[in-house]
Specification:
The chain is an alpha/beta fold. The chain folds into four domains: about 5-135, Response regulator (Rossmann fold), CATH 3.40.50; about 145-305, P-loop containing nucleotide triphosphate hydrolases (Rossmann fold, 3-Layer(aba) Sandwich), CATH 3.40.50.300; about 310-385, Helicase, Ruva Protein, domain 3 (Orthogonal Bundle), CATH 1.10.8; about 395-455, Arc Repressor Mutant, subunit A (Orthogonal Bundle), CATH 1.10.10. It is built from 19 helices and 16 strands. It has helices at about 10-25, 35-45, 60-70, 85-95, 110-135, 145-160, 175-185, 205-210, 225, 245-255, 280-285, 290-300, 315-330, 340-345, 355-365, 395-400, 405-420, 425-435, 440-450, and strands spanning about 5, 30, 50, 80, 100-105, 165-170, 195, 215, 220, 230-235, 255-260, 265-270, 270-275, 300-305, 450, 455. The strands form five sheets. Strands 2-1-3-4-5 form a five-stranded parallel beta sheet, with helices on both faces. A five-stranded parallel beta sheet has the order 7-10-13-6-14. The chain has a two-stranded antiparallel ribbon with strand order 8-9. Helix 4 (about 85-95) links the parallel strand 4 and strand 5 (about 100-105). The longest helix has 29 residues, at about 110-135. The structure holds adenosine-5'-triphosphate. Adenosine-5'-triphosphate binds near residues 140, 172, 175, 236 and 321.
């Protein structure tokens, strides 16, 4: 949607305007009647329309077309061409929402000025629309586990400051959700939140995307920094930013100014920057892939977002939320999660974290039959649950290489750590589930060197 549709029944005129605009670097399409115009509009809406008021041998005149455009595509600026002396009609067109009008015979410079302004307006509207889309995404950040509450506590502390936050954590763990939480609770909540996915932007496009560009033909195109002005710029996977762009970003952080690509003027912005990484940036610095000074500027307040396997307790809550969301968004069945299925999910490894969990629930709801509770077999980590072989345990290479006694200890340690984690460190509930007396479980944990409160490995000396 970046071209101009020229609608005029006089072939000479539409071709003349088309040639002038093409020489100026615009892409154009031509229509000689209202039918042709409507076809073009339905195929792809243009960025701008130049529309003659009188269309001979057409079903609709310019004003009729204008009304349709304003109803269906209100963001497209329409410049009206009117015959000399038709000033009242031109004014009527402006009242119907036309952007501006030019009189025939027109002056080329005047035409170009109007087009340039209208194109800028169109670009601005589209940017605002895309920002609104981003901002309208409702924020849901769920969790009740101790590690999750600790995360919220940390986020609450940083929301009110203007400090730069670096979110670390594995893919899909909720780093962007955490960044949005900061935005929503900060004094910038009504200003934009703009995400730059550094990993998905072509390296040679990165500077244009961030800083925008300007040239004589197209005028100014604002980049993401300007779109985020007054609000928050979220640099997702910042380690993927090319080294050259890193130097320029560093300058932005130092004095909040930059130049658009092709521009000479300094543009000033007021931004709070939040960045995220799933990689170890110290390693990236050691390998020469990341600028140390930029790291220190971005990493003023480091916040670690925990992996899903570190907050297994939150799993049923997250599953309920995803079922509700998928029911509302896609009409998928509103099922519940059986206790057995919850236990299976809580013992999974989850390398893809919360995102992987959501995908799995979506798949189960699509493929499953019936509206009953989700069963353990449906979430057992295989696409063909009936082939799972019942209770067969798959032996990992590491376990298979150990003598029985050590393998049993390694299994017991892993099993009990997972269960303690599932029950949020609650020993009574863990003991009940695993079928042991509370005191026996304590002795077992001690002998295996597991810290009872956290379910973490210890040197065996820790007492509850
Ligand atoms: N605490 C949470 N409550 C509800 N949904 C969550 C939570 N954390 C993550 N999600 C959901 O999980 C998915 C992944 O989250 P998000 O994009 O924030 O992860 P990320 O760490 O930024 O991932 P990546 O590093 O791959 O960009 C999203 O659908 C998000 O809504």
């Amino acid at each position: 949607m970046s071209d101009i549709l020229i609608v005029d029944d006089e072939r000479d005129i539409r071709e003349l305007i088309g040639d002038i605009l093409e020489d100026e670097g615009y892409a154009v399409r031509l229509a000689g009647s209202s039918d042709e115009c409507m076809q073009q509009l339905n195929a792809t809406p243009p960025a701008l329309m130049i529309l003659d008021i009188w269309l001979k041998d057409s079903q609709m005149d310019g004003i009729d077309i204008l009304k349709v455009v304003k109803r269906d595509n209100p963001g497209i600026p329409v410049v009206i061409i009117s015959g000399h002396g038709n000033i009242e009609i031109a004014v009527a067109a402006i009242k119907q929402g036309a952007y501006d009008f030019i009189e025939k015979p027109f002056n080329i410079d005047q035409l170009l000025v109007v087009i340039r302004r209208a194109m800028e307006t169109s670009l601005l509207r589209r940017e605002n629309q895309s920002l609104k889309r981003v901002d309208q995404k409702p924020l849901v950040m769920l969790g009740e586990s101790a590690v999750f509450r600790a995360l919220i506590g940390q986020l609450d502390k940083v929301t009110r400051s203007n400090g730069r936050v670096m979110l670390t954590g594995p893919a899909g763990s909720g780093k962007e959700v955490a960044a949005r939480y900061i935005h929503q609770h900060s004094n910038r909540a009504t200003a934009p939140f703009v995400t730059v996915s550094c990993a998905s932007i072509q390296p040679d496009q990165m500077e244009t995307v961030l800083f925008g560009r300007e040239n004589a033909e197209r005028g100014v195109e604002k980049g993401m920094l300007e779109q985020a002005n007054g609000g928050i710029l979220y640099l997702d996977e910042v380690a993927d930013m090319p080294l050259g762009t890193q130097s320029k970003m560093l300058r932005v952080l130092v004095d909040q100014t930059f130049q658009r690509v092709g521009g000479t003027d300094k543009v000033r912005v007021d931004l709070r920057v939040i960045s995220s990484t799933g990689r170890d940036l110290k390693d990236e610095i050691a390998q020469g892939n990341f600028r140390e000074e930029l790291y220190h500027r971005l990493n003023v307040v480091p916040v670690a977002v925990p992996a899903l396997s570190d907050r297994r307790e939150d799993l049923p809550l997250l599953v309920d939320h995803f079922i509700d969301e998928l029911h509302t968004q896609q009409g998928l069945p509103k099922r519940t999660l059986s206790e057995e299925a919850a236990a299976v999910l809580q013992s999974h490894v989850w390398p893809g974290n919360v995102r992987q969990l959501r995908n799995l629930i979506e798949r189960v709801l699509i493929l499953g039959d019936g509206d009953g509770p989700i069963t353990a077999a449906e979430v057992s980590g295989t696409d063909t649950p009936s082939d799972a072989g019942g209770d067969r345990v798959v032996l990992s290479g590491a376990l298979a290489a150990l003598p029985l006694r050590e393998a049993r200890e390694a299994f017991e340690r892993e099993y009990l750590m997972t269960q303690i984690n599932r029950f949020g460190g609650n020993i009574s509930r863990t003991a009940q589930f695993v079928g042991m007396e509370r005191s026996a479980l304590h002795r077992k944990l001690k002998s295996l060197g597991i810290g009872a409160k956290t379910g973490s490995k210890s040197d065996g000396s820790e007492e509850e």
